[in-house]
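Quick one, tokens below:
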């Protein structure tokens, strides 16, 4: 892998454009836009780790969208989001791309908050 993840992203965008892969190209463009927005926010070029973090957030968004679309009975939109998530997973951190792909891994155990005592005013 020569160059940074951003260079790899732009090369893949060019390949997808030439191949006519609309879904892949759209997902890569959205990732590039998210990276640009983050760079403007933090006022410096993102490192590869920061690019992976942005990609991880995009993968998470797609996972949440898939659940919402499936819950609403919109399977065609869920399939589109699933295809985009697969493209973006290549740029996300390993544990995130694997862990977020299964809904059961997102369940968290909740620890109840400590009970507060009522203090009566006298």
């Amino acid at each position: 892998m020569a160059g940074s993840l951003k260079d790899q992203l732009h090369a893949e965008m060019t390949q997808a454009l030439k191949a006519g892969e609309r879904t892949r190209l759209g997902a890569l463009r959205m990732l590039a836009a998210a990276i640009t927005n983050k760079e403007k926010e933090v006022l410096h070029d993102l490192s590869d780790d920061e690019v992976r973090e942005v990609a991880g957030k995009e993968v998470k968004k797609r996972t949440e969208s898939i659940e919402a679309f499936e819950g609403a009975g919109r399977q065609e939109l869920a399939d589109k989001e699933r295809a985009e998530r697969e493209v973006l997973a290549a740029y996300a951190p390993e544990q995130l791309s694997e862990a977020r792909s299964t809904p059961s891994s997102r369940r968290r155990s909740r620890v109840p908050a400590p009970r507060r005592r009522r203090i009566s005013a006298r």
